[in-house]
Every structure is written in C-alpha cells, then in structure tokens.
Specification:
With 481 residues, this protein is an alpha/beta fold. It has a domain of 247 residues: Amidase signature (AS) enzymes, CATH 3.90.1300.10. The chain contains 15 helices and eleven strands.
C-alpha cells in the first residue's frame, strides 16, 4: 500500500482503489493491525467483525478487477457505535443486560453505509445505553482519550471518537441525544455532526430517548462528514419519524465561500463556568470566521439557562419508558428467581449500571401520578420555548456559533462522584438537541496542555448543507494557518 489509510480522505481511498494503488483487503489488514496494537490501551472497540469486513472488501476488489464503478464510500473503514444493531455481531449498548445479544438484522444506517461501500470494522464502546458524558459508564470499561490517555474522550460516543482520532478507522457512526456525538468530537479533536431530527433513520438504533436520539457521522474532516451524512440521510419506511425531505448534495455545498454569512453568537453560551482557554479559542475561531467575511450578530436566547433541567426531565422520562422492555423475559440477561417480580428485580439490578438506574428512577418519578404536570409536562413546555429561541435567532442570522463544551477533556474519575457536574458538561449541546436542529463540532485549537477545543455550529432544521459549508470553510482556514 502506497500510503496508510489513516492519512487518506474517503475520496482519496476510493480513487486509490480505482487506480489499484492498494486493495480493499490491504486497507483492512492495515486497519486491524492498528486496532490490535492500540485498542488494548484505548478500549475503543468492544467487538470486531472481520468476516463481514473482508467479505465486503472482496466484493470491492472484484468490482475493481472487472472495471466496474465503485460506490462513493468504497474502502472507508468504519466503526459503528454499539447501540446500532448489526446483524450477527454483538450489540450490547455498553450494558451487561445485553451482553450476549446478537441482532438478527441491521440498522438502516448500517445497511446504507455498507451499500455505499464502507467496510464495517466492528462495534465501538459507549456509555451504557448512551447515558453519559465521559464514556466511563460502559460496563466494559472506560475509553481513554488518544490525545491524553489519562483523560476521558467524552461521551456517550467516546469509543467512536477515540477510534477516529487515534486513526484506528477512517470514520465512525455515533449517536447524539444531548451532545453524545458533538461533545466527544470536541474533546478528541475531530469533526462530529448531529443531523436534524428526522434527517437520518433511527430504525435499528436501540432507544434511549426516542424524541431526541439521532445518528451522526464522526470523521477526520468535514468533507468526509458530508460524504458519510449523504450516505445515511433520507427517509425510511421503517422509521415513521424520518422525514420525507429531499437530501441535497452535501459535497457540492463545500465551496469555501462564506462571505456575507450572518453568524449569531448568543451571550448565554459565554457565561460562568466556562474554562478560560476554551473561551479564548472560541472567540479566536469567531474572529477567524469574521476574517472570512462572516458578519457577527449578537444574540439573546433567554431560555438557554433552563436547557439542562429540561433535558434531564424529558430524556430520563423517555428512558424510563424505553428501558422497561429489559425485564429478563424476552431477550438479554435473565437472573433466576423464585417469583416473576423477583426475577425482574434481580435481572435489572444485575444488568443495569448505576447511571442507568439513576436515570430510570428520575424518569419514573417525573412521570408518576402527582408529579407529571409539575415536571414532565412543564419540561415539554420549556422545550417549546427553547425551540422558539432558535426559530427567532434564525430570523436574524443564517447560523449560530458557540463553544461545544465549556471545558476541555477532564481526567478519568474526576467527575464520576458528582452527577450534576457531569451533566453540566452538556450545557451547550442539549439546546440544539431539544430544538431538533442540526449542529456540528469542529476543532478550533488546543489548550496550553495540548487538549482539543471544539467550535459548535448550529443551523436551521434541515440546513445541514449550510452548517457543513461554514464548518468546511473554517477547517480550511485553520489548516492553512
């Protein structure tokens, strides 16, 4: 192979296959060798799927040999977060309760990326049932940040972020409920995108919070994020929440021209609790966008302060409902007991970790008689107000720019004893999740300790092309500098 795959873009990999500079099998050999060397240290992958990957590689190499055109993501090595169903490969959600579960079907996004030519390498580690901001809640051990192995990679898609940042794979699929794609992308220093709710099918995504969960790309470049999003976006008859909205050519939107674009900067995202170096890098990034011809528009989004409380009421209520199915009766772990009620208690007690139990209890309380209107119903009303903040903001600007996380990657174990401090790590990401709008995190520099900082770009609903265009222009300007 003339160049290691970890230095090549999706387009360069496909072109290299067409030019016969390397084979898809050689790409896989290189990928699995890196995983064997690095995964024991990082714990980014929970399961590998070499039989599936090599079968796909042989199909691609056969197409090359016959002179047939290759699909757009041909040869792209891809990790899949372990909350997305993969036929025959363990899908555990990072939980003991699904330790031996092997789905009989693929998630729609898995089908689509494989149809586009990607090589599915295996399943990436994550916080249990995608509940966490540090990837320390996985039943199979914490993931380490490849930039600083004594620190967290972010969560809950920490395994996907670490695998991409370490060069173990070219790209990965993550899921974002309240920041679980964007925050680990920021902490590991890679582009990571949350599409509009409904843009990408959730069929085969094992649910945490059904009105919030989204699948998104985690890549080494914005252009690769555009290519991967293009492969997975679009309506799906298997998912009634997927939107029948045409999917634009995201790659065509990456023109590099952003002059005249109005970028909103809400003051609420630059308040107390933000690390000083994060603030400085975010302000410098906004100044760089202004140097590209963007016009800064000051914004006020007054309901931002209520976002964390709102999110953790709605998300836990939906989790309480969704996770009721794990009872030891139909699939997953079953703990023997003398009575049915005893079996429920023992199964869920042994199968769920502390954070999942905490969220189930919070959500059950919020939905209980006498408290539903005071907590859950009120949270839904505030969610509407937060969405209204975004709607009004987009009447004044085309895009909104904020920091992704108020802090850089923190040390392993630093926040595990303080759930509230952990929840506050999502303070800048949960707003867009509640509003249903798309957002991306792109690297915008390093702290004095060499820790990545992320810049977050929000767009209007189904405005992913606009988000990607600004992210790409910023990435190019940052690389050139």
């Amino acid at each position: 192979m003339t160049a290691p795959a970890k230095t090549l873009s999706a387009a360069e990999i496909r072109a290299g296959l067409v030019a016969r500079k390397f084979t898809a099998r050689e790409l896989l050999d290189d990928c699995y060798a890196r995983i064997a060397a690095e995964n024991p240290r990082l714990n980014a992958f929970l399961a590998l799927s070499p039989e599936r990957a090599y079968a796909q590689a042989d199909r691609l190499d056969g197409q090359v040999a016959r002179g047939e055109p290759l699909p757009p993501l041909a040869g792209l090595t891809l990790g899949v977060k372990d909350v997305l169903a993969t036929r025959g490969t363990p899908t555990t959600c990072g939980s003991r309760i699904l330790e031996h579960y092997r789905p009989p079907y693929d998630a729609t996004v898995v089908e689509r990326v494989e149809r586009a030519g990607a090589l599915i390498i295996g399943k990436t580690n994550c916080d249990e049932f995608a509940m966490g901001s540090s990837n320390e809640n996985s039943a199979y051990g914490a993931v380490r940040n490849p930039v600083a192995p004594d620190r967290v990679p972010g969560g809950s898609s920490g395994g996907s972020a670490a695998a991409v940042a370490a060069g173990l794979v070219c790209a990965a699929l993550g899921t974002d409920t309240g920041g679980s794609v964007r925050q680990p992308g920021a902490l590991c220093g890679i582009p990571a995108m949350m599409p509009t709710y409904g843009r990408v099918s959730r069929y085969g995504l094992i649910a945490f919070a059904s009105s919030l969960d989204r699948v998104g790309p985690m890549t080494r470049s914005v252009s690769d994020a555009a290519a991967l999003l293009g492969a997975i976006a679009g309506s799906d008859p298997c998912d009634s929440t997927s939107a029948a909205v045409p999917v634009p050519d995201y790659a065509a939107a990456l023109t590099g021209s952003v002059a005249g674009l109005r970028i909103g900067v809400p003051r609420e995202y630059f308040g107390e609790g933000m690390d000083g170096e994060v603030r400085a890098r975010a302000e410098a990034a906004i100044a760089k966008l202004e140097s590209l011809g963007c016009r800064r528009v000051p914004l006020e989004m007054p309901h931002t302060d209520y976002a964390i409380a709102t999110y953790y009421l709605i998300a836990t209520a939906e989790a309480s409902s969704n996770l009721a199915r794990y009872d030891g009766v139909r699939y997953g772990l079953r703990a023997p007991a003398d009575t049915l009620a005893g079996m429920y208690r023992k199964t869920r007690g042994a199968g769920f970790g502390a954070e999942v139990k905490r969220r189930i209890m919070l959500g059950t309380y919020a939905l209980s008689a006498g408290y539903y209107e005071a907590y859950y119903l009120k949270a839904q009303k505030v969610r509407t107000l937060i969405a209204r903040d975004f709607q009004l903001a987009f009447e004044k600007c085309e895009l909104i720019v904020t920091p992704t996380s108020p802090i850089p990657a923190f040390r392993l174990g630093e926040r595990t004893a303080d759930p509230l401090a952990m929840y506050l790590a999502d303070i800048y990401t949960v707003t867009g999740s509640l509003a249903g709008v798309p957002g991306i995190s792109v690297p915008c520099g390093l702290t004095s300790e060499g820790l990545p900082v992320g810049l977050q770009i929000f767009g209007p609903r189904f405005g992913e092309d606009r988000v990607l265009a600004l992210a790409h222009a910023f990435e190019r300007a940052s690389t050139a500098a």
